[in-house]
Design a protein that fits this description.
The complex is a heterodimer of chains A (773) and B (154). Chain A has three domains: 152 residues, Aldehyde oxidase/xanthine dehydrogenase, molybdopterin binding domain (Aldehyde Oxidoreductase, domain 4); 174 residues, Alpha-Beta Complex (Aldehyde Oxidoreductase, domain 3); 324 residues, Aldehyde Oxidoreductase, domain 4 (2-Layer Sandwich), CATH 3.30.365.10. Chain A is 25% helix and 26% strand. Chain A has 18 helices and 32 strands. The longest helix of chain A has 28 residues. By secondary structure, chain B is an alpha+beta fold. The chains are: A alpha+beta (773), B alpha+beta (154). At the A-B interface, helix 1 and helix 16 of A face helix 2, helix 3, helix 4 and helix 5 of B.
Amino acid sequence: MTRKTLLVGKAFPRIEGAVKVTGQCHYLLDMPATADMLYAGLVTSTQPHARLLSIETEEALQQEGVETVLTAHELPGTLGMSLQDRPILAGERVRYVGEPVAVVVAQSPAMARSAASRVRVRYKDLPVVASIADSLAAEAPILHPDLAHYPGADVLSPPDSANVAARFEMKAGDMQTGWARADVILEQTYRSSVRHHAALEPHGAIARQNGDGSIMLWCSTNAPYTLRSEIAQALNIPPDRLRVRGLCVGGGAGAKNHTCIEVLVVAAAMHQPEHFIMLSLDQKQEFTSTFVRPALVARLKMGVSREGEITALQASYQWDVGASADACLETVWASAYTGTGPYRIPHVDIRSAGIYTNHTPASPMRGNDVAEIHWAIEQHIDQMAAAIKMDPVMFRLQNIVKGGDMLALGEAMHATGLDQCLQSVVEAVDWQEKPLSRTTSARGKGLAIFWSPTTLAPKHSVEASARLDPGGCSIAIDAEDAGTGLHTFVAQLAATELGVPLSWVHIDAVDTASALYHPQPKATAELCSIGNAVLAAVRQLKQQLLAFVAEAWQESANHIDVIDGVVISHATERQQALDEVLSTGIDTDAGRRPAPMLETRGQSTPSPLFPRHDDSLSAILHFCAGAVAAEVEVDRISGEIRVLQLAAALDVGHAINPDLVLSQIKGGTMQGLGSALWEALIYREGMPLNPNLHHYSIATFADLPAQLYTHIVEVPQDGGPYGARSLGADVPVMVAPAIANAIYNAVAVRINDLPITSERVWTKLIKLTNPLR
Amino acid sequence: MNYPVSFHLNGKLIAVQVTAQESLLDVLRHRLGLTGAKEACNEGNCGACTVLLDSLPVYACMVLAVEVDGAAVETVEDMESEELHPLQKAMIDQQGLQCGYCSSGMLVTAQALLAHNSRPNKTQIREALAGNLCRCTGYADIIKAIQVASRARR
C-alpha cells in the first residue's frame, strides 16, 4: 500500500552547498566580534623535553590591555577520556614543542600575541625521546613516571616497558602449526612518518561564562558532546554547566574529535566571567599544538604455502603516540584487532603498543589509522605472492576474508564486495596489459586492498530527535558535518521516511543543551549509528502524525500515508498538503483543526558489536572494504615518480547519495596520494622542521593524475540504514601501498618507509645498479 | 597610527582607516564585516582568502591594506546577483566542495580565470588554480565544475 518516494540512493547536491559557495557559511572565525570580546594568546613550549624551572608573567601582565595570564598554577589538571595523560597546561615539565604552557588574555589579538611573547619561560633541557626506538631503549628517560596512577591506566594492559602507554594483543590458532605448514616465511619491517591532518580551517574557540555561571562554547569540532565531556571532566565542572554549540566545520579529518585548545578558552572564560574569550591558532600552532597522526613501525612475519594459502601472521605494530596517548588509544587498539588486513589467516599473533615520545600527541586521521597497517600488509602480500610465483590478484582473491569466515578476533565476518572492488580496479587499469618502459624511465602497476573497521564505544546508544512544525522537519543529531555529506545523507533518510521533499528537512546545528548524548562520536561511525537513530526518530514522528490525521479524519491510521508532502488516505482518497496541515490546520468534517507540534526521539543501539569479550574501549560495528590500483612512471636516473593513474573502488553497502560518496572517494584518493609521496611532519630530535602548509606538502591541482577512476560497490550491510556503511575515512588507506607495489613492478625497488620520496627511490636504484654504494 | 585608505569594494567606493600592519584580509573581515574570504593559514600558503585586486587573484592575507588605496577589490560576496553565479551553481552540482573552507578562494580564482579565458582546458584550469589548496575534494570535481560553468556562460 505505501508508496515511498525514495530519496535514498539518489544523487542530490549537498544541502548546505548554497551557503558555502556564497561565503555565507559561518565558521568559527566568521562569528562577529563583540565589543567586550577578549582574546587569548598561547605561550607554547619551544623545547621538546625540559623541566620547567619558572614561568615569569610579570612583564606580560604589565603590557597594555592584558587582563590575565594563566599557568598550570591557576589551571592544574589533566585531560583524557580513556587515559588521563594530557596536562591542560604543562606543569613541572614540557614534553613536546608546541605544548601549551600559559594562556594570556588581552583586549585585542595583537595585544595577546605581544604579551604571550613576553612571558619568560625558563627550561632545563632533558634528554629527548625522539623516536620509538629511543623510547624503548633501556636508558630512555621516562616520560610519564606516574603513568600507573593516571585515571584509566588500570583498564589498559599493563605496560611492559616504562614508556609504553598501552598495548593490546590478538591471538588465534597455534603459531607453531602455522609456521610448520608454511613453505615460505618472510619477515620485514615497514615504517611511516608522523603526518598532520592539515584541515584548512584552524582550531579555534569562543567561550563565555554567563552571570548565572553557565558557560557557552563555540568551536570547530565534529564532536561537541565529546568535547563537553572532556572539558567538564578536566575542569571539574558538571557537564550541564557547559553548553557546546556546533558550527560549520572547515574540515577535521580526525583532528577535531577531541579537545586540545578549547579547554583553555573555557578555563579563561571562567577566570574572566561575562566576557567572550576568543582563541584562534596560527599555522605553526595548528601543526604543533593540536594533534598529529602517529608514526608506525610495523614488523611482519608471514608464512605461505606453495598452494598460495597464508598460514600464519606474526605482527608487531608500534605507534608513536607522542607525548600523550589518550586521543590515539583507539588506533593502538584497532591495529591489534584488525591487524591481519582483510585476509583469512588461521594462526595469528598480533601485538600493538602505543609508545610515548617527545612529539605532539597523536589522534586518528581519517579513520583509525588502518592506513599504516595496510602500508605494511599490502606490500608484504605482494612479496609473498612473488615468492610463490603467484599473480598478486589471484593470491589476494584466494585469501581474502569472505562473509561467514571466522575472524581471528573470534567472530564471523559479514559479507562484503571486496572481490568486486578488486576486479573493478584491475579492469580500470588494464591490469593484464604490461605497461611501456623506456631506457630512462619505467612504468609499473600495483594494487592494494583494505578493510577498515567502523567503531563505536561499546554499550552506548546514539540518539537523534525529529521535530515537525510549520517550518518543516528539523532533525537534531550529535555531530557536525565536516564536509563528509553527513547532513545531506541524514536529510535524505529523514525525507524518505517521512514522505516529504528533501527541501523540507533541516539539520539543526548541534547544541549540547538539547540533551542528546553520544559518548564518543567518531567520523567513522557517523552515518551508520546516527542514520539509524534518525530513522527511528522519524518513524515515530510519522506514526504520531498519521495518528493525528486518522483521528481528525476518523479513519484508521493504517490507511493514511504521506507521499511527496501530501497527506493522503488510501481508503477515501481524501488528501491535503502537509505544509497546509502544519501551518493552518487539518480539514475535518467539523472545520479546520490546528496541528500540534510533534517532536520525537530515536535511538540506535548498534549491533553486532565485536569483539564481545573486550568492552573496555571500543567495539567494531562492521568493516568497510575496497581496493586501489595505480600506474606509475619512475625515472631510472633521478627516482622521480609520476602517478599516471589511480583507480579506487569501495564497498559502501548502499550509497545513500552516490555523487557525495564518489566525492568522498575522489578526495580520499588524492589525500592518499599526498600521504604516499610527500606528507611527513619531520622532527629532528623532537624539533618539528616543517610545521606549515608551505613546507608540509599536500596534494595540489598540479598533482592530479591524468586518470582518476572511482567506483562504488554495494553489498548491503545488515543493520546499516538502508544497508549503508560508513565511509569517508577509508579511501586514503590503500593508495600508498598500491603506489609502492607499482614502483616495485616498474623498477624492482621496494620502499619500506613512508612517504615514498624520490630520494628514497633514487637511493635504492643506485644500490641496484652499483651494490657497492 | 591610522592611515586613510579608499578603494572600490565590490563596486562601491569605501573609505576606511587602517594601521600599517593590517592586511587586506583583516580589513575585509574585521573592519568591514565581509567574512566570505576565509582566514586559514595567514601565511600565503593555502589560497582560502583569495580576492580579486584589480581583477587579478591575490592572497588577501599577503596584501597590506594600505596597498589597496585607489584599487578595485572584489570578493566572493560580489559573485551572486539575483541568483547564483554559474560557477557557484556548478560547484554545488558537480560536488566541487566538501567542508567549504576553500570554496570562496577557489571561486574567486576561477572567476578571474574565466574572465581572461572563457573556455579553459583542464591544464589551464590546473595552472590557474594551483595556488588554491583543497584538503577534501581531490580537485577533480572542481575542474569539472569550472568547465561546466564555462559552457553555461556562453
